[in-house]
Predict the 3D structure of the following.
Amino acid sequence: MRVSTAFGLDIGGTGIKGGVVDLASGELVSERVRLDTPQPATVAAVLDTAAAVVAQTGWSGPIGCAFPGVVKDGVVGSSANIDDEWLGEHLERHLAARLNAPVRSLNDADAAGLAEMRLGAGVERDGVVMMLTLGTGIGSALFVDGRLVPNTELGHLEIDGAVAESRASAAAREREGLSYEEWAVRLQRYFSHVEQLFSPDLFIVGGGISRKADRFLPLISVRADLVPARLRQNSGIVGAALRSME
């Protein structure tokens, strides 16, 4: 029997979001639940919050989880935007035991990119596609002819002596009170650097700030096509749900 829905859980440095997703359309068929990421974001605290998010929808069944760090075979390999206690922990086993459900996981930007490639702005786009998510940090997902190159983590590139996401993330804009024009100068430096390294054919820009893409994307000049994420702030949830079926 073909499964038509799954639960997508998107763990971020600031919020933990989730919802039931129609796997054919990418639309949420439940409420979108968001709770603040606990601080510190320890293993036990994050698991408790994730369980609360799932419980609010009444969901029972497969769950996909997007996580803010490198994830290989269900194991966390980096923790820049979450507590270091997660390093080396088996995310999938922890969640499966806590939620009593089968769980598949992947990097959060990879999840957003997966959603956009299958159901959003990247549909039927070949060549090199780069998804960048602007939020607490900067997430990246790289696709070559539709195939994901996982865990690129390009927000951690060093540019002009600083980690890129420390100056160009959406959180940095809010923290420093930058106007969109001031922020766009930093984004331009970042996008130009990434374009020089990877020569993508398409940039897709996601994260919650993408709903205001008209305020800053027109200020950025790159050779590649540059578009906002079609699924906007739900890309990570949708991609996580798609991952649960793989």
In short: The longest helix spans residues 180-198. The chain has two domains: 5-110+235-243, 124-232.
